[in-house]
Amino acid sequence: MEFSEADIIHTAAVIKSMGHPMRLGILCFLGQGPACVQDINQALGSSQSNVSQHLEILSNRRLLQSRKQGNRVFYTIRDARLLAMLPLIRELFCPDLRQYTQQNAQQNTQQNAGGAQADHLEGSEPWKSSLR
After folding, report:
1. Which long-range contacts (CB under 8 A, 24 or more apart) does 64-73 make?
2. Do residues 99 and 126 make contact, with C-beta atoms less than 8 angstroms apart?
3. Cβ atoms 4, 45 nearer than 8 A
4. DSSP string of 15-41?
5. How far apart are CA 74 and CA 40, in angstroms?
């Protein structure tokens, strides 16, 4: 399959927009269903203005669609194929880190008699701070 330079540039821009921790968090949250800014704000622990800015970026890249209901705007993921990608992305890169770090710690302990590499993984959850 061939891609034009314009296709590659556009695809890179879309992937880049998804690559920000807050925006990936928003996409993962919206994978559960429609939500308004307040719901996303509460779930991700960010300010309303910050969430709104990230929603605008995702909307401008045509990843989200919105509908107004009363005085709230509800956002959903525009294309179901993105919803299909999110579980794979989460499986590859966003597993339950507590389980992940425990498994890695056990494997590293078995592989490395000293277990030095396992020590720094225990309780490590850097993704949480990057979502806030």
Report:
1. 64/30, 67/34, 72/36, 72/37, 72/38, 73/36, 73/37
2. no
3. no
4. HHHH-SHHHHHHHHHHTTS-EEHHHHH
5. 10
Alpha-carbon 126 to chain mean position = 13
Give mean pLDDT in consecutive 10-residue pieces for the chain, a chain of 132 residues.
88 90 91 93 93 96 95 94 80 58 55 43 36 38
* Residue 122 DSSP SS3: coil
Q: Is the alpha carbon torsion for 27, 30, 32, 38 positive or negative?
A: positive
All residues at 6 or more sequence positions from 131 whose CB lies less than 8 Å from its CB, including other chains: 21, 22, 25, 44, 45, 46
Distance CA(12)–CA(8), nearest Å, equals 6
Largest separation between any pair of C-alpha atoms in the chain = 61
pTM of the full structure: 0.65
Q: Order of strands across the sheet with 72-77?
A: 35-36, 72-77, 64-69
Backbone angles phi, psi at 36, to 5 degrees: -100, 170
